[in-house]
Amino acid sequence: MTQHLGMPRQASWAEDAVREAEAEGPHIGAEHRSREQQVLDRIDRARARRPRVKEPRITLAHGAGGKATHNLIDAIFLEAFRNPELEQMSDAASLQVGQARLAFTTDSYVVSPLFFPGGDIGDLAVNGTVNDLAMSGARPLVISAGFILEEGFPTEDLRRIVASMAAAATAAGVQIVTGDTKVVQRGKGDGCYINTAGIGVRERPIELNAANARPGDAILVSGPIGDHGITVMLARGELDISADIVSDTAPLHDLAATLLDAVDGVRMMRDATRGGVATILNEVAVASQAAVVLDEAAVPVRPEVMGASELLGIDPLYVACEGRFVAIVDGAQATPALEALRSHPLGAGSAIIGRVVEDPPGLVLLKTTFGGTRIVDMLVGDPLPRIC
Amino acid sequence: MCLGIPGEIVEIMTDREDFAMVSVAGVKRAVNIGLLTEDDEQLKAGDWILIHVGFALSKIDEEEAAHSIRMLEGMGQAYTDELIALAQSDLAN
Amino acid sequence: MRFVDEFRDAGKARMLSTRIAGLCEPGRRYKFMEVCGGHTHTIYKHGLEDYLPETVSLVHGPGCPVCVIPMGRLDDAIAIAEQPDVIMTTFGDMMRVPGGRGSFYDANAAGADIRMVYSPLDSLKIARANPDKRVVFMAIGFETTAPSTAMTVLRAAAEGLENFSVFCNHVTIIPAIKAILDSPDLRLDGFIGPGHVSAVIGCRPYEFISREHRKPLVCAGFEPLDILQSVHMLMTQLAEGRAEVENQYARVVPYNGNPKALKVIGETMRLRPHFEWRGLGFIAQSALQLNERYERFDAEKIFAVPGVRVADPKACQCGEVLKGVLKPWECKVFGTACTPETPIGTCMVSSEGACAAYYNFGRFTRDRVKEATRA
């Protein structure tokens, strides 16, 4: 039965949040209703504040690749480990060891289900780390593989995953040279988790960085977006939806090299994993303090991915890929860059999807197919948990 | 919450009562058509329906849809005609 | 995508935009309320306001069923979810809505089992697959969604399921519109009427608006051209001195609604004497609950629900935003204490909430952006 206790209580967390915000100064919008811009400026300042993690416990949002993840990394990891290299927050760290310039990266894989159309967790584990190295302009060399297996996990499934990893490593030209295995009790591990770390050689004299983007640059994507995230979502079987979509997982080292060989004005590259293309572009806008303007009609999305996204009410711009990257290139070299990408089998669906402009700094804007404009903000929450 | 998507019936399922397999841009999902079973016409493959949280809420009236578009196109044509007439009258001056 | 792409055509939009501008009387400002949260979302997602003259403004109304749920009801849902062997299921939108003690995400982190489902039928599936658990579906939505909940209850009854129940928060649209019309703060010229609610209830229930309040209402579809065409139809009515109910969404909305849908609601549910709406207070006969015949599926009869009432923080102005009195950015906590990641109120959390739509999609001033996005 629903009783109705008369006196309403207060939500203390909300009262605290309001008090803190008020301490920062009076709100302008309420008094000067026409001064919308002042309110927006104040919001920009609030967004630029040092992030803090107020939640007492980790939630799924912290793993989505969006705002909560960034806050967690900034406020907890970066705060504790702080050093100049880590502050770069690149896909891969840069190391100078004697004469050699190396790239070093790591990633963990918790995808559910483990096997899905187009690949499995093994493919992701190798390709994901290879790609992080490739995105920093390095040639991938070697990978480590750490496994956390759950008691009761079928050995045959492990063989399949490992076979995928071996094949993926060969295709990417890397060797798996070291690793580790742990087993946890039944119920404590969800089958199989994998961590891979990778080392690559930075042979090119380039520095790729999100902060390098400048007004006039062109934004390219290497193919249709959202295939992987939607595939995994449907493969969970909870949604009763079937479609002819497969994961786009692929090693991008060769495609990246093709681009870097063709043009010298590449500012940065990043593969669109958790959080999708929208997340990368937000990172670029903030790092370079420029604005990104996207053309919705130019963003390649397969009709089935569009259909599934509409059905589920999610935006493909936020859906993970595992074999696509975003490249920011000097505007004057956009055409040869596109041609170079399209000349490669993995880049056949490449497109120029937007450009970098000066104002308003830190924002990503979208010109909709309808002809209007809207913002594409950093992801909040987690529409698609455990995608990679 | 108002999320309603148009989908095309691919087949009326025979093994499950009140269900049809519906396609949205090639993505297929079984949709419950129980809210549309008291219309005079039976639903069939090729019909379009509005899907909301796994149920078909309404049958899309293709004639009405075409009518809406035609109205907009007609207005568009009239609008273009007006612009042309306006331009010509200016030139005449 | 058919029935979608045709209604997103930019060329027709430009033409309608000019027509709408042509119908504006010099010196007059126009204010239309779009009642439905889905319309708010479309307007911002497609940048529709770029096509309206400066003198025509769209005001957001209370048609967001997530937005009108008071914090206390969230706490009640969490209280149910925390009871032994309960799996709570709900639509995705609800997972981040903050109650007095946090959201469903937070409750999960503390050990509850609250799962996102796409359809109430998915909730039945979970009940069948977990006979030793008690599965609860938190039902939200206006009359659009109530028939789906009703059909699910009928199915559960037919299958003799004993571990499934519904925590019913369905609300009805007409009392909300009446509350708007009775509000002294608001001077509206007309309404963009709900689309999918009307697919169930038809257009007749709105006739009192034109008859008694002399304001036009146009039932609109959810693609941007639908809304723009509806604005044009409203402006035309005003120019011609008419106040009628018109149906722009005739491809989906039958004027007399969906009789089967209304029938199953009537079979399984009844109106509550009153219900608390966030921002609008207690409204009589404005919400649904399961009736006596189906009360074995009513979570409020099965579980001890505390009936918590949590006062909105004083600074929270969701109520005024929901009534269209305040624009999102005029709320004192908009964008500072209240953001999509740290929402104070429901308007910021639901994908159909006005504040979320403005913050996520529209957070810029027109002139700065026109420069940036010029072709």
What does this 3D model show about the protein?
Chain A is of the alpha+beta class and 388 residues long. Chain A is 33% helix and 23% strand. In chain A, the strands form three sheets. In chain A, strands 11-13-9-14-12-15-16 form a seven-stranded mixed β-sheet. Chain A has a five-stranded mixed β-sheet with strand order 2-3-8-6-7, with helices on one face. In chain A, strands 4-5 form a two-stranded antiparallel sheet. Chain B has a five-stranded antiparallel β-sheet with strand order 3-2-1-4-5, with no helix packed on it. In chain C, helix 2 (37-45) links the parallel strand 1 and strand 2. Chain C is globular and about 65 Å long. The model of chain C has no long low-confidence stretch (mean pLDDT 90). Chains in contact: A-B, A-C, B-C. Chains A and C meet through strand 1, helix 1, helix 2, helix 3 and helix 10 of A and helix 1, helix 3, helix 4, strand 14 and helix 14 of C.
Would you spell out the secondary-structure blueprint of this structure?
The complex is a heterotrimer of chains A (388), B (93) and C (375).
Chain A: E1 9-10, H1 12-23, H2 36-48, H3 67-81, H4 84-87, E2 93-97, E3 100-109, E4 115-116, E5 119-120, H5 121-135, E6 139-150, H6 155-172, E7 175-184, E8 192-201, E9 218-221, H7 227-235, E10 241-242, H8 253-262, E11 266-271, H9 276-288, E12 291-295, H10 303-312, E13 325-329, H11 334-342, E14 351-357, E15 364-367, E16 373-375
Parallel strand pairs in A: 6-7, 12-15
Antiparallel strand pairs in A: 2-3, 3-8, 4-5, 6-8, 9-13, 9-14, 11-13, 12-14, 15-16
Helix pairs in contact in A: 5-6, 5-8, 8-11
Chain B: E1 5-12, E2 19-24, E3 27-32, E4 48-52, E5 55-59, H1 62-92
Antiparallel strand pairs in B: 1-2, 1-4, 2-3, 4-5
Chain C: H1 10-23, E1 30-36, H2 37-45, E2 56-63, H3 71-81, E3 86-90, H4 104-109, E4 114-116, H5 120-129, E5 134-141, H6 146-159, E6 164-170, H7 173-182, E7 190-193, H8 196-201, H9 207-213, E8 217-219, H10 224-239, E9 245-247, H11 259-268, E10 269-271, E11 274-277, E12 281-284, E13 288-290, H12 299-302, E14 310-311, H13 318-322, H14 354-361, H15 366-373
